[in-house]
Amino acid sequence: MTKHVIGLTGGIGSGKSAATEAFKSLGISIVDADEVARDVVAVGSEGLRHIVARFGRGILLEDGQLNRPALRERVFSHEGDKHWLNQLLHPLIRAKMLADIGAAPSAYCILSVPLLIENNMENLCDRVIVVDCPESLQLSRALQRDGSSRETIESIMASQASRNERLEKADDVINNTGSLDELHEQVALLHEQYVKHFNLSA
Asked: Would you tell me the crossing angle of helices 79-103 and 46-55 to the nearest 10 degrees?
């Protein structure tokens, strides 16, 4: 059976995680790039070994895990480090995502990737969902959630595709300016559409 892949993306603070969880609650397999990114830098991994070799053991927490906020602050203020990290991690992440897609048990799966558009990964997907909200709402949500500085959040937003660029690539849009219930309703409708579109059994 052909594995149908629905890409899901959106800027920082847009509500990607909430939308992903809504699909998961419907029994849909999720391949989450953020989780894959954590896996490829887990303790004992090749990715973590290379990061420590470049940045030193000070980039680790006391338990030996990667200090992700410290690494993020570093790479977003040093363009060379950011480029090096992307060159290291993107091939590792892509390979694991493809393996996870192949192993997904549901009739279609959600490939949740924050930088789906930026990394030209639409070719992995049958359709692309963009979770959308105004940039001012993205910023306020991300500041409330992440504990990062306003400068860091704004730098991350500037490094991502613009709202318009994402929407131009969208086959489907989830408007996440309302309540969680409204988001779940939109996900349920999309799920019904995909089951019909791909001739799947729900």
From this structure: 170
Task: Give burial (CB, 10 Å; 0-12/13-18/19+) of 168.
Answer: exposed
Angle at 99 between CA 125 and CA 96, to 5 degrees: 95
Among residues 19, 6, 3, 2, which one has the least CA distance to residue 170? 6
Closest CA to 14 of 87, 117, 123: 117
Three-state DSSP class for 187? helix
Render pLDDT for 61-85 as a digit per residue (tens, 0 to 9).
Answer: 999 999 999 998 889 889 999 999 9
Q: Are 157 and 118 in contact (CB under 8 A)?
A: no
As a whole number of Å, the end-to-end CA separation of the chain is: 15
The DSSP secondary structure of 2-57, one letter per residue, reads: PPEEEEEE--TTS-HHHHHHHHHHTT-EEEEHHHHHHHTTSTT-HHHHHHHHHH-G
Residue with tokens 């990607």: 16
CB-based burial of residue 8 (10 Å sphere; 0-12 exposed, 13-18 middle, 19+ buried)? buried
The whole-number pLDDT of residue 201 equals: 62
The span from the CA of 48 to the CA of 41, in Å, is 5
